[in-house]
Amino acid sequence: MKSALFTRFFILLPWILIVIIMLDVDTRRPVPPLTPRPYFSPYAVGRGRARLPLRRGGPRNQSRPQPQPEPQLPTIYAITPTYSRPVQKAELTRLANTFRQVAQLHWILVEDAAARSELVSRFLARAGLPSTHLHVPTPRRYKRPGLPRATEQRNAGLAWLRQRHQHQRAQPGVLFFADDDNTYSLELFQEMRTTRKVSVWPVGLVGGRRYERPLVENGKVVGWYTGWRADRPFAIDMAGFAVSLQVILSNPKAVFKRRGSQPGMQESDFLKQITTVEELEPKANNCTKVLVWHTRTEKVNLANEPKYHLDTVKIEV
After folding, report:
1. 294 is in an annotated binding site
2. Residue 287: which region, alpha, beta or left (left: phi > 0; alpha: psi -120 to 50)?
3. Of 30, 50, 197, 243, which residue is the least packed, with the fewest Cβ within 10 Å?
4. Widest CA span of the chain, in angstroms?
5. Do the annotations mark residue 26 as ligand-binding?
6. 269: annotated binding-site residue?
7. Would the annotation count 180 as a binding residue?
8. pLDDT tens digits for range 188-225
9. In this structure, is the dihedral angle defined by the CA atoms of residues 246, 251, 256 and 261, taken in order, positive or negative?
C-alpha cells in the first residue's frame, strides 16, 4: 500500500514543480498601466449618428456663453374706421388677409355706429388677429358731403391707445391709419416698423394722379409732389405716414379736429401737432417706391335686388 502511494507521489512531483515555476515567473512580469476606456453615451450623437465619447471628470465650472435675448419687435397698431355698406365685409376680408402676414400687429377696428354690429363682431372673431373692436357714431350734422369723414373713429382709436398705455411703460410701437379701402404691400410694414417719430412714403392712385409723394433731398423732405393743394403744410394722404407710439403718448392732446378743419386738411391739422416737415423720416427708398394704393371698390349695382320674394336662406355678404 505504501509503495503504491510513493510511486504516485513521485509521478506527480515533477508536474507540481513545473506549475510552481510557471506561476513564479508570471508574477514577476511588469503590469501594464491601466488606461481608462472612453465612455459612450447613447445621448451623444455626432455626424453620421456615431456615438461620441463623453469625458468624465475635469473642470465643472466652465463658463458657457449665455444666449442673447432677441430685440423686441415693435408692435404695429392699425386703426381702421369702417361703416356698414354692401362691400364692408369684402373690404375687411382683403385687409385681414394682409394683416395676417404681418408679425406683431394689433388691429383697432372702429365702427361708425351706436353699437357694435353682429357682422363685424363675427368677422373679427374668425379673423384670427389680435384686435380691438370699438364703435362711435358720427354726428348727423357732420355727414354732409364735403366734410371730413371718420374723424370720430380715428380719435376713438387714439383714445384707446392712450388709455391702454396710461399706467404701464409703453412698449416699442408704431401707429398708422389703415382705411379699409386701401391695398398694402407687405414691404410697407417692414419700412414703418423702424419709425422713430413720424415716417412718410408715397401713396398710389390718389389726388387725381397715379401717385403722390414727398420730395426728398439728402434724406430730408423738402416738398410735395401732389395734384391737389400743394400749399398744404403736409400735402400727404392719410395712408402715407406712420407715427411712433411714444410720440402719440407724449402728445395726449393731438387729435383730429372737427372745428376749423377744412376738407382735405385733416392730415396736416393732425401732423402739425406732433412734428415738423424737417423731422419727417422718408421711407420706401427715399419716397421713390409705391407700397400702398388708395383703391376704392366700385359702387355696387344692386338694381336687380328684389324687394319682395326674397331668398328663403339668409346669407351674410
Report:
1. yes
2. left
3. 30
4. 145
5. no
6. no
7. yes
8. 999 999 999 999 999 999 989 999 999 999 999 999 99
9. negative
Pick from 230, 225, 208: nearest CA to 282: 225
Q: Summarize the confidence of residues 130-146 as an average pLDDT.
A: 93
Specify the 3-state DSSP secondary structure of 82: strand
81 is in an annotated binding site: yes
Length, in residues, of the chain? 317
**Does the annotation mark 267 as catalytic?**
yes
pLDDT tens-place string over residues 31-45:
555 455 544 444 344
DSSP string, 179-203: -TT-EE-HHHHHHHTT-SSEEE--E
Rounded distance between C-alpha atoms, residue 9 and residue 198, angstroms = 115
Please name which of 252, 243, 264 lies closest in space to residue 149, comparing C-alpha atoms.
264
What is the rounded end-to-end Cα distance, in angstroms, of the chain? 124
Grid cell listed for 184 = 398694402
Catalytic residue, candidates 267, 278, 298, 305:
267
SS3 state at 96: helix
Instruction: Judge whether 149 is annotated as a binding position.
Output: yes
| Cβ atoms of residues 102 and 130 within 8 Å | no
Its CATH architecture, for the domain 75-201+237-284, is: Alpha-Beta Complex (3.90)
pTM of the model: 0.76
